[in-house]
Each structure stands twice: as C-alpha cells, then as structure tokens.
Amino acid sequence: MNIHEYQAKELFKRFGVPVETGGVARTPDEAVARYDEIVAAHGPDTQVVIKAQIHAGGRGKAGGVKFAKSREECAAVTRELIGKTLVTHQTGPQGRVVRSVLVTSVMKVQRELYFAVLLDRTVSRPVVIASTEGGMDIETVAAKTPEKIVREIIDPALGMMPFQARKLCKALGLSGDLATAGTKLMLNIYRIFWECDCSLVEINPLAVAADPAGKVSVFPLDAKFNFDDNALFRHPDIAAMRDPNEEDPRDVEASKHDLNYIGLDGDIGCMVNGAGLAMATMDIIKHYGGSPANFLDVGGGASVEQVTAAFKLLCSDKNVKALLVNIFGGIMKCDVLAAGIIAAAKAVHIPVPLVVRLEGTNVELGKKMLQESGLPIITATGMADAAEKVVRAARGV
Amino acid sequence: MSILVDKNTRVIFQGITGSAGKFHATHCHKYAGNVVGGVTPGRAGEVDLDGVKMPVFDTCAEAVRQTGANATCIFVPAPFAADAILEAADAGIPLIVCITEGIPVNDMVRVKRVLAGKKSTRLIGPNCPGIITPGQCKIGIMPGYIHKPGSVGVVSRSGTLTYEAVWQLTTRGVGQSTCIGIGGDPVNGTSHLEAVRLFNNDPATDAIVLIGEIGGSAEEEAAAWIGEHCKKPVVAYIAGMTAPPGRRMGHAGAVISGGKGTAAAKIEALRAAGIAVAETPAVIGETLVALLKSRQRARPRKASAPSAKRAKSVKKPAAKKPAKRK
Questions:
Q1: Does residue B285 contact residue B169 with C-beta atoms inside 8 Å?
Q2: Residues 241-280, chain A: which have Cβ within 8 Å of B?
Q3: Is the separation of the CB atoms in B104 and A231 below 8 Å?
Q4: What's the pLDDT tens digit per position in A307-355?
Q5: Where are the alpha helices (DSSP H) in chain B?
Q6: pLDDT averaged over every residue in chain A
Q7: Nearest CA in chain A to B167
Q8: Residues in chain A closer than 8 A to B108 (CB atoms)
C-alpha cells in the first residue's frame, strides 16, 4: 500500500521528524487557511508551494507543483489544481485526478542527499542506505557510481544504533549541528520503518535547507512509503490512509473477492490457481506468441463465487480476445473445480473463446463434465497444448 | 533415503483444531501415518482425524515430551504464526514447516534473527506447500498421490507450479527423493541454496530440479554454489519472464524491484553455472529426462572413477548435450 505525500508528512511529524509548516487542503478555502497558518508562523510575504496529491512521481513537470505569494493566488492555484487530471510519466496516458493539494512553506535547498530504509533480502534484515547523490534515481547512482552509496545493516533486535547514523552522516558530509540533526532524523525514520511495518521508506531528496527564518537543517523534502499489506491488521490508522481513487478499479474489485489480480496490456485473459503457476502460464502464453492480459491467482480453494467474480473481471477487460483457465487440482478436486467453472460460465456471458486445462485429482471426471456441459469450452491437455490453443483462439483461427 | 523427513519422522500439527489444520493433518496421516498429535493453546484433549484419535496439547514443549515429535507443521493464523514458530524452536523441534501465508515481514525478520543462533533448528516456509518424501512422510498441503518414490530432489518457491513439475516427472516414470516447497515470502527459513546443498549430500538423490521465480537473489546464490560445488545434474525453471516490474505477483516475495530479481538475470546466472534451464513450464520433466539420458551416454565406463571428478567432467557438456564426445 502507498500513501500521499501529505500523509507521509503527518507520519513524520508524529515521529518527531521536522517538516515544512503547512498541511493538506481539499478546497480553496482550506488552502487559504493553510496559507494563513504558514504566514502566522513565518511572517507576511512568505512564499508557499502548492503540490497536487497523487500517487505518482513527475508532478512538477506535469504542472502539479505551483508557488503562491498571497491568499488570492493560493486560492486560485488550488481551484485550478483540484479536479484537474495530471498526466506524468508514472500515471500512464489516462492520468490521475487531483483530489487534494499540500500547501507548505518553501525551503531554500543547499544540498540534496538520499536516504532510504528497506529490507535486505540476502541477510533478512533491514538495511539503511544513504548517498550524497540526492534528487537522482538511486538505481542510476548504483549503476554509475556505486561508491557513492553507503549502507548499514540493522540488527532487528537492537534497532538502528546512533553510531550507525553518525557513520552515515559522516559519509554524507554532515558535520556539527547538521550531523546532530541528521543523526536524530535517521533514527526517527528508522523507527517509522520498523514500528509502522513499512516495506520501504525512501527520502529523495533529503535536503540540507534553510527554512523561511533562515535556519539551516536537514529535512525530508519528498518521501515514498510502502507498507507491508500483511501487517496492516495491526495498523488501523495506516490502513485508513488507503485511497481507493489511486488504485486500478480492477485491482479494487479483485481484492474484494480475495483474488490476486494484476492487469497487463495483452489480449489473453488467464485464470490460474497458485501464484507460481499463474506466472508460468503468462510466460508460456508469451512463448507461443501470445500476450497475457493479466495475472490472476484464484488461490487453492477457488469457490464458485470466486470463479464467477474472476470471469466477470476478465470479461470486463475490452482487450481480451480469448480466455485460458489453467488449474492444477491438488487437494481441491478437478470435478469440483469443473462444476465451479460451468456454474460461473453459465452465470456470466463469456463473449470470447474459453480454453480450459485441468490436471490433477479427478481430472477425467472434470474433463467429462466440461465436455457434457454443452458450453463452447475448448479443452486442453498440458500447458503447452493449452497455450497453443488459446493463442490460436485469440487470433481467431 | 531422502532429506529432512522419512518414515521415522514424528509430526505434530500446531493449529490442529482449526479447519485447515485438521483437514491437512488428516490427509498427512492417511498418506504415511507420521502424525503423532497436535497443539492448540487452551484446547488440550483429543482431536478426531477421520476416525483416528490424536492427542492435543496446550504447548509444544508438552507435545514433544509426550509424543517424541521431531517435526511440526504450522497452520496457525498469520498474526500468531511467528510466535508459533518460536515456540516450536524453543521446544527443541528440529524441523519446523510453516504453511501459513501472510505473515508480516518484520515478524519473519525477528524469527530469522532468533533462529540464526539455533543451528539445530530448521525452518521451511512460511507461505509454502511443505515437504514430502514420497511413500514415507508428507508434511504439508500437497496432494500425495502425484509423487512417486525415486531419486530426483525438487526444491521450489511455489505450490501448484511444483505439483505441475512433480507430475511431469511422475508421469514419465521419474520418482522423487524429497520435494521441498521453500515458500514465496521475501524472508523465509530454508533457501534454495540450503536445499540444494542437502540434496547434494544425500546419497539417494541423483539429480535436482530447482524451480524459482522473480524477486530477490536466492536463485542466483544457489546457481553460484551449484557451479562451484554441486556434483549432481540440475534442471531449473524460473517463472515470471512476463511479470511487470514493481508489482507483487501473488507471492509477497515475487517482485522485481529496482531492476533486481528479473527472470532473465536469474536464467543467465543459472546457465552460467552449467544448469539446464527449461524454456517453458511444460518441459521441466522432459528437460530432466533428456539431461539424465545424455549423462548416461557421456558417463565413462570405468565405474571406479572418483564420483566428484566424474560429475564435474560431464556437467558442462550435459547442458548442451553431445558436443564433448568426439
């Protein structure tokens, strides 16, 4: 799960990480109220920045970040941004509708650094990463100048130790008061990562900057948070930050039925039990010259209700020219699954050819049921046969 | 022979009174009769596994004392699963198989930190189908009948994709020594490398099937080790060639992040180590059979040659079939 920038800054505040003055606004009136708060804190003529809140990077280039120097200007910019569809390199051509803005004071940036906390899978421990090359894509830095990235592995029993933060500050060239502030900031951000069950906290840039009063310190100017979905049950406050407007409607529909769905841009819809087999099914479709329209794992138990919901979801994709169902029945018997497919196929009008490959427990009975159902189902034996048949069906031959 | 589990394994089920726990304990017991009891806190007494009465204990420590269990299978709900794993480790159970899906990553980070100091405890999973030595012991949710006793070791991060591969072997008359599902989470107990190492040391395993998927670098680490040390032929398959970056493909660990963990990179690492990689999931069985045949042809007649050397000398050409014999 991802959150908005304004929600990230609220989390920072809660954990004692310094951020700009300001807050979220959903109307021009609210934006003016934020403006007044900023002026009250920093004096008249303070410049503010107004940033469109969407879950995608590249907002500045797309016209989603604007400055204002008066109440009127602040209201006008907000009026313009709210309701606007922003198209950035991360949103896709359809863009995202702006529903709120973040209004804050402006920092005078002196240096841009990079700081992140994530899981190091090779050692099964959190790792803290810092770099002097802030504002750049960290993968580019890792590829071109790997020596500019420093890392500290964290012992989960201890948490991040102050000496580790001091080492990183030294490597970032922070000294004196800046090192003290940087150390405190790093330790607090690590606490957010651990206590909120994040899978990633990325601060890019972490800025050495002057606030409107001219005081220079270290601030997280932009932040990306990912949370471990498996741990949301113990963070109702974070779960409440979910914004369904920012998610693919097909993904939202799928998660309602406990289906694992990821939309792609091909034309062969697939329904499979098990994540590994679902990926392998996509791959073999591609191998035989087709293109998968989605990843869909219906899980081991696949009830009639789930299979029905899955068919509806697949058929709602207008690009889909053929469907492939690939099931390896283990404990779940093929005849039970066949009954589910038949019931679902009768309940949902399937406008495209349907190829079904069943294997496993009671497979003969399951195949017989499909054949006798009177439904125009193309049965397949083995994954290669299934993939060839569905690719041919999608081409209309 | 086999690795980790055999006919002498005595298994308890943690969460045996829950519906999934009871269902699978029943099937595991029917398969080879290794189940000796279960644990559900606050529910000590008895449970009926389709006509077979099994003792239920409040704690793992008590279950071990009373039944002599040397393995456990965990069906405890995700929020409590880390605690269940550590309870089993504390009770001295050497093999812990955790089936539970959806355990928070940080919980597993803590579990791994504790288990790192307990060399006598092995965790398999979580979020896995379990482990089976065909005909001798089944601990997990896999359908028993698709397996056949034999000499191919199978290790995989997936469930149904493993069944697919195993079924391809069985229908070609190729049996398995042991099949391990190591699970699809980013932090898990036993890695591909550790499983391969166990198979390499197992006299009853002649060849290995390694099934991986996108995300992390466990397959690359296994490949590097195999290239250096493995005496036995290995066939691999990697799922997720068509997976888009940045999206979790069902398994929490199956994600390409920061350009790392792609199927292409894994396949390259495996091939560089002389491992035969199946082009599609439909030919995993075929690829292994072809590899075993080509090795038989390539094998020198002198049976007394030291086995490690012999394997080494055939490994590279085996991937590309004859080439070497001229």
A1: yes
A2: 260, 262, 264, 272-280
A3: yes
A4: 888 998 998 888 999 999 999 987 678 888 888 888 888 888 889 999 9
A5: 19-32, 60-67, 78-90, 105-115, 160-171, 192-201, 218-229, 263-272, 284-298, 307-319
A6: 92
A7: A360
A8: 124
Which is more confidently placed, A230 or A139?
A: A230
pLDDT digits (tens, 9 = 90+) for A232-244: 999 999 999 999 8
Chain A residues with CB-CB distance to B282 below 8 A: 284, 382-384, 387
Question: Nearest residue on chain B to A231, judged by CA atoms?
Answer: B104
State yes or no: pLDDT of B321 exceeds 80: no
Does A142 score more than 60 pLDDT?
A: yes
Average pLDDT score, chain B: 91
Could you read off the pLDDT of B142-182 as tens digits, one per residue?
A: 999 999 999 999 999 999 999 999 999 999 999 999 999 99
B105 closest CB neighbour out of A119, A280, A361: A119
Q: What end-to-end distance do the CA atoms of chain B give, in Å?
A: 37
Pick the range with the lowest mean pLDDT from A239-248, A386-395, B212-221. A239-248
What value does the mean pLDDT take over residues B4-32? Answer: 96
Residues of B with CB below 8 A from A156's CB?
106, 109-110, 113
Q: How far apart are CA B313 and CA B326, in angstroms?
A: 14
| A245 band by pLDDT with thresholds 50, 70 and 90 | confident
The complex scores an ipTM of 0.91
Average pLDDT over residues B26-53: 96
Q: What is the SS3 string spanning chain A? A: CECCHHHHHHHHHHCCCCCCCEEEECCHHHHHHHHHHHHHHHCCCCCEEEEECCCCCCCCCCCCEEEECCHHHHHHHHHHHCCCEECCCCCCCCCEECCCEEEEECCEEEEEEEEEEEEECCCCEEEEEEECCCCCCHHHHHHHCHHHEEEEECCCCCCCCHHHHHHHHHHCCCCHHHHHHHHHHHHHHHHHHHHCCEEEEEEEEEEEEECCCCCEEEEECCEEEEECHHHHHHCHHHHCCCCHHHCCHHHHHHHHCCCEEEECCCCEEEEECCHHHHHHHHHHHHHCCCCECEEEECCCCCCHHHHHHHHHHHHCCCCCCEEEEEEEECCCCHHHHHHHHHHHHHHCCCCCCEEEEEEECCHHHHHHHHHHCCCCEEEECHHHHHHHHHHHHHCCC
Q: Does A295 touch chain B (CB under 8 A)?
A: yes
For residue A359, list chain B residues with Cβ-Cβ distance below 8 A.
164, 167
- Percentage of the residues of chain B whose pLDDT score is greater than 90: 83
B140 half-sphere exposure, CB direction, 13 A CA radius = 35
CA distance A103 to A109: 18
Model pTM score: 0.91
In terms of CA atoms, which chain B residue is nearest residue A301? B20
Integer-rounded Cα Rg, in Å, for chain B is: 20
B222, B192 contact by CB (below 8 A): yes
Q: Is the pLDDT of residue B258 over 90?
A: no
Enumerate residues 6+ apart whose C-beta is below 8 A from B222.
B191, B192, B193, B196, B210, B212
Quick one: which of A208, A87, A209, A183 has its CA closest to A128?
Answer: A183
Residue B313 class from Cβ within 10 Å (0-12 exposed, 13-18 middle, 19+ buried)? middle
